[in-house]
Structures are given as C-alpha cells and as structure tokens.
Design brief:
heterodimer; A: mainly beta; seven-stranded mixed beta sheet; four-stranded antiparallel beta sheet; 11 strands; globular; B: 112 residues; mainly beta; six-stranded mixed beta sheet; five-stranded antiparallel beta sheet
C-alpha cells in the first residue's frame, strides 16, 4: 500500500531535549515536505526537499532541521525543542502531478 | 501565510442535505486541492482541480474553480454523518517548491 509513515504518533518531551520525528514513503517520490498544524493558523510548511540532498526552508523553519540522505526518508529534527513547538506535525510526499500523500501525523507536546 | 480562505468557517446540516463550501485565494495557482481531516487525524486528499479546469467530479464530490474570481467551491451531495470532518482547500502555485498553501479549514457537522 502506498503510504507515508511517521513515527512516533504521539510524543511528550521536555524543553531542550533533542528529538527526531521520522518520515518514510514507499512511492519513490522525489518531493517531500513537513508541515505543522496549529489551531487558528492552519497548516504551514516547515521544510521541503526536492530530492536527495536537496532541502530548503518553508514558511516556518526556525528551530527545525531536516535531512534527505535517501529518497524514502525525510526526518524532522528538533535540536532544542521549546514549548512553542508543541503542535501536530505532518509529513507529506508528492508525485509528479502534484498529488500529495500525507502521513497520519505526530502530536508533539513540549513541556 | 494563508492563501486559501474558506467560507463558512463552520457548517451544520442534516444528513441527506447538500453541503457547499467555498474557498478564495489571492495569487495565481497551478492547481487547487481539497482535503478532509477527521478530528486531529491525517489529511485525506479528496480532489485536485487544475487551473485550466472549471469543474471536476468524484463520487458525491463536485469541485468548481473560477480563476477570474480566484475562488473554488466544494459540493458534497447527499451528505452522511461520516462526512463530519474539517475540510481544507490548498493551492499550489508555480515555482520549484510547488508547496501546498492551506486555508484555515471549514468544520462540517452532519447531523444524523
């Protein structure tokens, strides 16, 4: 089944403790992206990647890092999480005709 | 920044009725997409309409696009309680990123 898999689904962590949210897709898509969803603000793009080793900032990249060492994986790294990064995070991949597939989401709470 | 602005923000209808949701956007687009989200869960892609298309159908869904007015509408016919969810329009512009820019969403409640 074609899918985007994120892990973990839920995470509670403390301020400053580095964490990684993994994202993997099995559709051989070149384009992948991370979004965060916050009440009243909708979904906003954090980072995107056009292909392996090609990443760039989205609208709200501060406090995040990404890497794209292989096509299927696109992890989101929070080096020093802060409470304002408490959010619902979605990873997505896109095919050549702009069809997006989203992961199930990761609900992160930073205390 | 938000590109799509949905209207209304919330909609409550009776099962069997039709639901119409509208989306307006500000800049030129390559395509416009509608997504559904059930209570804090993942986003499900419903339909994509390209800038050179005016109407598209998929099952009980009908989407229209008016690029001169920079607006789109999503019609769900013969609604069911299972259609209760949040609905988002998202636009894709030009450029290499071709990112999805989402509106804030419409909450649809379908009463049994």
């Amino acid at each position: 089944e074609a899918q985007v898999t994120q892990n973990p689904r839920y995470l509670i962590t403390v301020t400053g403790k580095k964490l990684t949210v993994t994202c993997s897709q099995n559709m051989n898509h070149e384009y992948m992206s991370w979004y965060r969803q916050d009440p009243g603000l909708g979904l906003r793009q954090i980072y995107y990647s056009m292909n392996v080793e090609v990443t760039d900032k989205g609208d709200v990249p501060e406090g995040y890092k990404v890497s794209r060492k292989e096509k299927r994986n696109f992890p989101l790294i929070l080096e020093s999480p802060s409470p304002n990064q408490t959010s619902l995070y979605f990873c997505a991949s896109r095919d050549s005709v702009n069809g997006y597939t989203f992961g199930s989401g990761t609900r992160l709470t930073v205390v | 920044s938000q590109q799509g602005e949905e209207d209304p923000q919330a909609l409550s209808i009776q099962e069997g009725e039709n639901a119409t949701m509208n989306c307006s956007y500000k800049t030129s687009i390559n395509n416009l997409q509608w997504y559904r989200q059930n209570s804090g869960r993942g986003l499900v892609h419903l339909i994509l309409i390209r800038s050179n298309e005016r109407e598209k159908h998929s099952g009980r869904l009908r989407v229209t696009l008016d690029t001169s007015k920079k607006s789109s509408s999503l019609l769900i016919t013969a609604s069911r309680a299972a259609d209760t969810a949040s609905y988002f329009c998202a636009t894709v512009g030009g450029g290499a990123n071709s990112k999805l820019t989402f509106g804030k969403g419409i909450t649809l409640s379908v009463r049994p």
